[in-house]
Amino acid sequence: MTVGEHPVERGSRLVPHTADCILEAWGPDRASCLEEAVGGLVGVFAGTSDAAATTVLPVSLEPAPDPDILVALLEEVIYTAEVFGKVPVRVHLTETEEGGIAGDMEVVDGTQVPLIGPVPKAVSYHGLEFTGTAGDWRCHVVVDV
Q1: Residue ranges of the domains in the chain?
Q2: Residue 85 parent element (H or E)
Q3: Contact at 8 Å (CB) between 59 and 102?
Q4: What backbone torsions phi and psi does residue 71 show, to the nearest 5 degrees?
Q5: 109 - beta bridge partners?
Q6: CATH of domain 13-144
Q7: pLDDT tens digits for the chain (145 residues)?
Q8: What DSSP assignment string belongs to 15-29?
Q9: 3-state secondary structure of 77
Q10: How many CB atoms lie within 10 A of CB 58?
């Protein structure tokens, strides 16, 4: 997909921040930006590049403002890691007709991947941004580690 003359790629990056980190992600549509945000969040605490998923967990988020959907999804990842000890290695998301998000997370037991940091504690609404226009979606979120 292109915006103007330039293709919109998918990706994410982590930016150090005092006692936290900033996660930025982007993609050509809302679902792909959310997928990249999940990958970026997992990159805070686990190395999953060589991991093979052992379980698939469903993801279902009700329609809500875009920033709320982003926070709910990232908090679901944190909850899955903390409570079930499962780390997402891939995520597949689509938008529902009602404006929510549906899909699944392929996960692996946390003991099967190298842990490179603590599981984040929370996602902050402070400085939260999640917006999109004509094939270019971007998010910016502070993650409490």
Answers
A1: 13-144
A2: none
A3: yes
A4: -60, -45
A5: 86
A6: 3.55.10.10
A7: 334 444 569 999 998 777 789 999 999 999 999 999 999 999 999 998 888 888 999 999 999 999 999 999 999 999 999 999 999 999 999 999 999 999 999 999 999 999 999 999 999 999 999 999 878 999 999 999 8
A8: EEETTEEEEEEEESS
A9: helix
A10: 8
Closest listed residue to residue 69, CA positions, set 95, 45, 41, 43: 95
How many residues are there in the chain? 145
Answer yes or no: pTM beyond 0.85.
Answer: yes
Tokens of 22: 């900033």
**Residue 103 burial (CB < 10 Å; 0-12/13-18/19+)?**
buried
Structure token pair of residue 16: 């150090």
- DSSP annotation of 64 reads -
- The CA distance from 65 to 68, in Å, is 5
